[in-house]
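Quick one, tokens below:
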């Protein structure tokens, strides 16, 4: 509503509340006015201190601004993941009840995603599944699909997705949530593959290779759709390169004749041995 003879009135002051929307009476009325001539403010009476001209000092012991929180729960920062501690008891470690960081390696069609999801779903402790392909496909416009040709853009997006997955895993683990990541890491590119994952997550990451036979991989790949499905020649080439993991010292699971629950059970056995005697990588 417009008011004749001046600007609109400021919003009413509510008891117990400060000026609304940053409105300051002093900003609109620098001092008492009589007509259009400012009236000087008289000095304080003798014996009374002058009012402070600067900001009001904070009392000693005033609380500092709270750290970054979700609600009222502080989140520990994610740091490099250390190797899980080996229990002192003579019994074998129980990976199902231990907070772990697992990297499941294998070619397209090996069943990495299905096994990782099942394993994460059936653990006794909170567990997250982080799929590299899912994170890579967060890029919608400008997505660099390596099936159309491997180039600097697809390489950069793979590196960015790995780093993003690593940061997510560290944050989950710092807050008591295990992680299983899956990626087609090639043994002939250790700096890009395992070396990158070790830098992003930490030395406590436990890598396991899932490597069924070529006929099984081809059959499973044929059931895929979209850009997740590769040509048979590409699948055979990737599978051949993955064979380089034999003799690397990493645990390898041949799940050619195993279903998803059976493969997850074998994965638990492999992880128990890895906790007790960490692989060198």
């Amino acid at each position: 509503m417009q008011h004749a003879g001046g600007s609109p009135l400021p919003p009413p002051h509510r008891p117990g509340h400060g000026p609304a929307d940053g409105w300051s009476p002093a900003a609109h009325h620098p001092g008492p006015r009589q007509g259009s001539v400012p009236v000087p403010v008289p000095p304080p009476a003798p014996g009374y201190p002058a009012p402070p001209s600067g900001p009001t000092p904070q009392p000693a012991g005033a609380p500092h601004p709270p750290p970054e929180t979700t609600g009222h729960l502080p989140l520990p920062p994610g740091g490099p993941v250390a190797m899980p501690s080996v229990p002192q008891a003579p019994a074998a470690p129980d990976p199902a009840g231990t907070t772990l960081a697992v990297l499941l390696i294998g070619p397209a069609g090996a069943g990495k995603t299905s096994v990782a999801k099942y394993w994460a779903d059936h653990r006794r402790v909170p567990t997250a599944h982080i799929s590299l392909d899912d994170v890579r496909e967060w890029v919608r416009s400008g997505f660099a699909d390596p099936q159309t040709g491997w180039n600097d853009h697809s390489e950069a997006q793979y590196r960015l997705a790995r780093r993003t997955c690593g940061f997510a895993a560290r944050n989950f683990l710092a807050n008591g949530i295990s992680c299983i990541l899956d990626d087609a890491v090639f043994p002939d590119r250790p700096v890009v593959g395992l070396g990158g994952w070790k830098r992003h997550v930490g030395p406590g990451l436990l890598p396991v290779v899932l490597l069924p036979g070529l006929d099984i991989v081809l059959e499973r790949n044929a059931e895929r759709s979209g850009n997740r499905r590769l040509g048979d020649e590409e699948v055979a080439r990737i599978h051949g390169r993955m064979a380089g993991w034999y003799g690397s010292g990493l645990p390898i699971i041949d799940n050619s004749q195993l279903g998803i629950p059976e493969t997850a059970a074998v994965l638990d056995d492999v992880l128990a041995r890895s906790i007790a005697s960490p692989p060198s990588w």
